[in-house]
Every structure is written in C-alpha cells, then in structure tokens.
Amino acid sequence: MGYVEDLRALVGHRPLIFVGAVVVIVDDQQRILLQQRTSPYGVWGLPGGLMELGESTEEVAKREVWEETGLKVDHLNLFNVYSGSDQFIRADNGDEFYVVTTAYYTDTYSGTYRMDPNESLQFKFVRPDQLPASMVGSHRKMVQDYLKKA
C-alpha cells in the first residue's frame, strides 16, 4: 500500500490535505499532452498525481508522468501552485480531500508511450483551443493559466 492508502485505512473518508503535481507537456507544434483517465472514467486531464513520503514536488511530477505515460520529463518549469477551498475533491468512493497542486510545464521529454490500463484509456496531444469538453475542471484552469504565461 502507498501513503494515501495507509492514511485512508486510519481515517476513513474524513477530509485530508494532499500535495500533488501535474505537468503540461508541450510538443513541437505547441500541442498539450492530455490523458483520458479511468477515474473519473473517460475524463481528460494532465499527467500527474499525489506525493509519496519524502518526495519533492519535482520528483512527484517526474514519477507520475513516467508511471502514467512512459515518458521521461526534464527541465520542469514551475508556473503556479493551486490551493484553497476550491481545490476540494470528493472521490466516487466517498474519500474527501483538499489538494495543493504544483503545476509545471516542459517541452523536454523522451521515451515511448506506455499506458497503464488501470489509470489511462488513451493519450493525445491537443491544440489548446481544442480541449475536450469532458476535462478535469482544475486541469482546464491550469492549462488556461499556462497559456497566459507562455
């Protein structure tokens, strides 16, 4: 079990605070890599996830991108940190949490796609003006904030 699962075994569904990281990965055509997730099923988002004990936010970002996509990312550039009451999530299983998300961007990546069917349905690079309708709301805002800074 990981850190989150260990905590949940102790506290049940009560609200917790978690730290996570996402990465806006940009290709040479200025398209952004999106992941169609298995949870919530079919919803699109940025690659990323939650911190394990002892990790830096940069390490979280790199590990999660690797685990979810098979890509290695370098030269992460911080563009924002998201926190507050609007970052509250109630998962389908009833777990409640607030997440502090560190958002990075990069155009430096290598490797070959490798999809974990437990986490992803598919990946694709999309133009920023063609984001899917069914997208994690906070990730849509992160993409919009990235575009303002790019």
Keywords:
single chain; 150 residues; 3 helices; globular
Structure at a glance:
By secondary structure, this protein is of the alpha+beta class.
The SSE order reads HEEEEHEEEEEEH
Cα radius of gyration in angstroms: 15 Å
Count of helices?
3
CATH first level: Alpha Beta
Task: Please tally the β strands and state the result.
Answer: 10
Helix content: 10-25%
Relevant CATH superfamily: Nucleoside Triphosphate Pyrophosphohydrolase
Span from first to last CA? 38 Å
Taken from the alpha-carbon principal axes, the silhouette is globular
Strand content: 35-45%
The chain-level mean pLDDT equals 94
Computed structural class:
alpha+beta
Structure description:
The protein is an alpha+beta fold and 150 residues long. The protein has one domain: Nucleoside Triphosphate Pyrophosphohydrolase, CATH 3.90.79. Helix content is 23%, strand content 39%. It contains three helices and ten strands. It has helices at residues 3-11, 57-69, 137-149; strands at 16-25, 32-38, 41-45, 48-50, 71-73, 77-82, 88-90, 96-106, 109-111, 120-126. The strands form three sheets. Strands 1, 4, 6, 7 and 8 form a five-stranded mixed beta sheet that branches. Strands 3-2-10 form a three-stranded antiparallel beta sheet, with no helix packed on it. The protein has a two-stranded antiparallel ribbon with strand order 5-9. A hairpin with a 5-residue loop joins strand 7 (88-90) and strand 8 (96-106).
